[in-house]
Design goal:
The chain is of the alpha+beta class. The chain contains 4 helices and 10 strands, in the order E-E-H-E-H-E-E-E-H-E-E-H-E-E.
Length: 176
């Protein structure tokens, strides 16, 4: 059975916003299985909250920020693909399209932070401007549910939001 979580396109874009829930859940659970923590369950409620926040961020003009809820939250942003085409002998026309980003691309990006996390010391040794918190949220042992959504912005950039409950990244605690 295939489950799609749909977010209405709204007035600013004719795009259809589809998250394949099963694929997103599988990508999360591959990482969790690798460290021996229970698999997550998909939450339509968390996905609905993620959709609401993604749509709000879509309207913010690229000001990507966390929602400051009591949920765990991972954000992912992707720029549009821009192309110049020559129209009528010298007048350049710029067009943009969304990148073909998949659920696997998003989770793989977050999972790449694993390289900086030391479980034995429970520390993150990420370079400036980087973090381990997306990865540690995904593998946080006490987190049981995830729900995700995306929105395509007016300029065809994308914002992806995943919410987690209970939240992870509790200061002083180990993820697993």
């Amino acid at each position: 059975m295939l489950i799609l979580f749909l977010i209405p396109a709204g007035k600013s874009s004719a795009q259809d916003y589809k998250i394949e829930a099963i694929r997103m859940l599988e990508e999360h659970n591959l990482l969790r299985t690798a460290v021996g923590v229970p698999k997550l369950r998909w939450s339509d409620s968390l996905a609905g909250e993620a959709a609401a926040w993604a749509n709000k961020l879509k309207k913010s003009g690229g000001n990507i920020q966390h929602s400051r809820t009591n949920l765990g939250e991972n954000l992912y942003w992707a720029s549009a693909v821009k192309k110049a085409t020559n129209k009528h002998g010298g007048n350049w026309k710029w067009t943009s399209t969304p990148q073909p980003i998949t659920e696997q691309d998003v989770v793989t990006s977050w999972a790449s932070e694993r390289q900086w996390y030391s479980r034995s010391r429970n520390t993150c040794n990420a370079p400036p401007g980087k973090t381990c918190s997306h990865y540690t949220q995904i593998v946080w042992e006490n987190t049981m549910e995830v729900g995700c959504a995306k929105a395509v912005c007016r300029d065809n950039s994308q914002v992806w939001v995943c919410n987690y409950a209970p939240t992870g990244n509790v200061v002083g605690q180990r993820p697993y």
